[in-house]
């Protein structure tokens, strides 16, 4: 497990990521809602002529939209969990962000196959794969950093009574 990320302590990293996740999720909600609105209007006009691949991409966009909206709430719970040192409040964000990364992996793989099968310049395809690989690698790294913080807080909460507690109250526990 990590002890620090990007020259920050895990706690600072967790708070920064939770705030950034909150802000970026709110922006992504606005952007994705416009994409979904445009696709719904297109699908409504020509429902029978929609290719299957475009329908699958639309379904994945809707799933991403739902996960991004849920990410707004889970970012808030993660920030509270870090402040109160309650690791269970971090679980919604970890599960939601992991699921979002899995859906994005599937989305980008389908999009990449679509770019390969239909004529696109090779330079465009290479740039696409390099950018997508960088974005996904960064996402998995962010998830691993927060998971390290989760395990760190979990270990902190599950440790038995420390020597500092015993010296403060001048007692030892009897079993």
Keywords:
mainly alpha; two-stranded antiparallel sheet; 2 strands; elongated; disordered C terminus
Task: Describe the overall structure.
Strands 1-2 form a two-stranded antiparallel ribbon. The chain is built from five helices and two strands. Strand 1 and strand 2 form a beta hairpin. The chain is elongated and about 65 Å long. With 175 residues, the chain is mainly alpha-helical. The model is unreliable at 165-175 (pLDDT under 50). Helix 1 (10-45) runs antiparallel to helix 2 (52-84) and helix 1 crosses helix 4 (122-158). It has one domain (7-169).
Which assembly state applies to the chains in this document?
single chain
Unreliable sequence segments: 165-175
Count of domains: 1
The span between the termini is 33 Å
Query: What structural class do the secondary elements suggest?
Result: mainly alpha
Order of helices and strands: EEHHHHH
Task: Write the topology of this structure.
Elements: E1 4-5, E2 8-9, H1 10-45, H2 52-84, H3 91-117, H4 122-158, H5 163-169
Antiparallel strand pairs: 1-2
Helix pairs in contact: 1-2, 1-4, 2-3, 3-4
């Amino acid at each position: 497990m990590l002890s620090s990320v990007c020259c920050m302590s895990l706690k600072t990293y967790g708070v920064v990521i939770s705030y950034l996740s909150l802000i970026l999720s709110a922006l992504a909600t606005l952007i994705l809602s416009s994409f979904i609105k445009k696709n719904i209007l297109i699908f409504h006009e020509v429902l029978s002529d929609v290719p299957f691949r475009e329908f699958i991409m639309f379904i994945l966009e809707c799933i991403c939209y739902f996960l991004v909206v849920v990410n707004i709430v889970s970012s808030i719970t993660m920030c509270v969990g870090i402040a109160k040192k309650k690791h269970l409040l971090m679980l919604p964000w970890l599960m939601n962000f992991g699921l979002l990364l899995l859906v994005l992996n599937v989305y980008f793989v389908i999009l990449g196959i679509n770019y390969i099968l239909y004529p696109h310049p090779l330079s465009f395809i290479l740039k696409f794969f390099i950018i997508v690989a960088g974005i996904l690698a960064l996402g998995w790294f962010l998830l691993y950093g927060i998971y390290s913080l989760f395990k760190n807080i979990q270990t902190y909460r599950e440790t038995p009574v420390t020597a500092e507690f015993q010296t403060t109250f001048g007692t030892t526990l009897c079993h």
